Amino acid sequence: MKSPVRISCLTLLLASYLTSGIALGAEEHPLYTHMQHWLSGSGDWRTPNPDYDPERDNEPTAVTHYSIIWTWDEHKQIMQGELSGITSEGSRIPYWSMFAIYNPATKSVIFQQVGNGAFIAGEQAVRQSPLQFEELEVMETMDHYANDTIIRSKHENIFHNNGCHDSRVFEADGDGNWQHRADWVWCLTSDNQ
């Protein structure tokens, strides 16, 4: 029997492909406006691994940084992302596969993230104009884990004109109040890294 998560992802990808209009170019697609800031420069956003200790983790496979890269699918209708660990020798270890899909019926962007034994999903209204520097971007998700745990989480991103963005992560407690969990600073790498 196929996994419900896999079927859900495939169904959404197919629906988006069929309803979004194959003739649209990337810059004309509503998803491009919504996700444009993620495609800046090299498109490779990195942040240091806070648990990395060069004194202790001196193996070439030690993860020194995390990386997020978003790209268009070959038809420029769906954005695909990957969150990876970057080792000290420069290898990539994929942790999460991510998808951003435009739903023309609701004029929203559906976000899905799969990996590490979990399925994460969220939806937000599509932006009518690109995100501006210092403007707050908020994405709320439902995070489903293999141990039957479901957590409501929120990411708050602010992109700066210096090639970096701040990301604050929150989880809802039992009363629905947001509890701060982590802060990250992600910066674009140069095109030749």
How would you portray this structure in words?
The protein is built from two helices and ten strands. The protein is mostly beta strands and 193 residues long. The protein has a ten-stranded antiparallel beta barrel. The longest helix has 16 residues, at 4-19. The protein is globular, with a radius of gyration of 17 Å. Mean pLDDT is 85; it is low at 1-7 and 9-23.
Q: What is shown here, in short?
A:
By secondary structure, the chain is mainly beta.
Which H/E pattern describes the elements? HHEEEEEEEEEE
| Mean pLDDT reading | 85
- Strand order in space, largest sheet: 1-2-3-4-5-6-7-8-9-10
Note the main sheet: 10 strands, antiparallel, barrel
| Helix percentage | 10-25%
| Shape field | globular
CA-atom Rg in angstroms:
17 Å
User: How many angstroms separate the termini?
Assistant: 42 Å
Q: Structural class, please?
A: mainly beta
Secondary structure tally, helices: 2
> What are the segments in which pLDDT stays under 50 over at least 5 consecutive residues?
1-7, 9-23
Work out the strand percent.
Answer: over 45%
How many DSSP E strands? 10
